[in-house]
Amino acid sequence: MGRDKAWLDLNGMPLVEHVARRLLPLAEEVVFSANDPDAFGTLIDRLPVPGRVAVDAWPGAGPLAGLHAGLRAARNDLVLAVATDMPFVSAEVVRAMMAWGGSADAIIARLTVGDRGELSPEPLHALYRKACLPAIERALAAGRRRAVAFLDDVHVFYVDADRIKEIDPELLSFRNVNTAEEWEEVRALLARGG
User: Fold this and answer.
1) Residue 135 DSSP SS3
2) Which of 3, 51, 97, 139 has the fewest CB atoms within 10 Å around its CB?
3) Are 121 and 158 in contact (CB under 8 A)?
4) What angle do the packed helices 62-73 and 133-141 form, to 10 degrees?
5) In angstroms, rounded to a whole number, what is the distance separating the alpha carbons of residues 16 and 88?
6) Which of 125, 70, 86, 63 is CA-nearest to residue 8?
7) What DSSP line would sit under 146-175, residue for residue?
8) CA atoms within 13 A on the CB side of 174
């Protein structure tokens, strides 16, 4: 995109706020994992639930460090981690994932990607319990930065795409924005009520 996607304007609102507001029916608090806490001050003030910024304890260690920071800062045991560039994220899908996953340490959608139809987890649209923290810390300490680096060390419940499609037939909840063209598609779809 060439710029921070979190602050793209979507109908007069930053994309990150749009995503947060879509999930407010589930939220007792909102924790933004970011290394620039000052940028979130006015956004946090506009939210109807408590909010704050969690800064990485492992700066420069990528998405796993961000997940660690957010999970460590959260007040609740079960935390939804979602990327700021998922404008169609659905509270209904998240609620269903919570029900299906029960007491698992991590509840993660597994979607088909690529030409060969390989299944891939969606770690930045997933639920995690604080019990994941030690495994995340071990992965980070070992220099493993991928958001999925710790999953072999925790109890994971994978939700397959077919199950999610019962609620979200097009899997829009998992669609993210990576290019200017995708951004324009998203804006057009939202303008049509998508």
Assistant:
1) helix
2) 3
3) yes
4) 150
5) 12
6) 86
7) STTTTGGGS-EEEEEHHHHHTT-TT-GGG-
8) 25
User: How many CB atoms lie under 10 A from the CB of residue 41?
Assistant: 10
Mean pLDDT of 62-91: 96
Per-residue pLDDT of 131-169, as tens digits, reads: 999 999 999 999 999 999 999 999 999 999 999 999 999
Q: Which of 20, 61, 50 is nearest to 150 (CA)?
A: 61
More confidently predicted of 76 and 3: 76
User: Which residues are bridge partners to 83 per DSSP?
Assistant: none
Cα dihedral across residues 59, 47, 148, 116: positive or negative: negative
Report the DSSP beta bridge partners of residue 10: 13
Which CATH architecture best describes the domain 5-191?
A: Alpha-Beta Complex (3.90)
What type of residue is 149?
A
The domains of the chain are located at 5-191
Q: pLDDT value at position 115?
A: 67
User: Quick check: helix, strand or coil at residue 106?
Assistant: strand
DSSP-derived secondary structure for 2-36: -S-GGG-EETTEEHHHHHHHHTGGG-S-EEEE-S-
Report the alpha-carbon distance of residue 40 to residue 115 in Å, rounded: 39
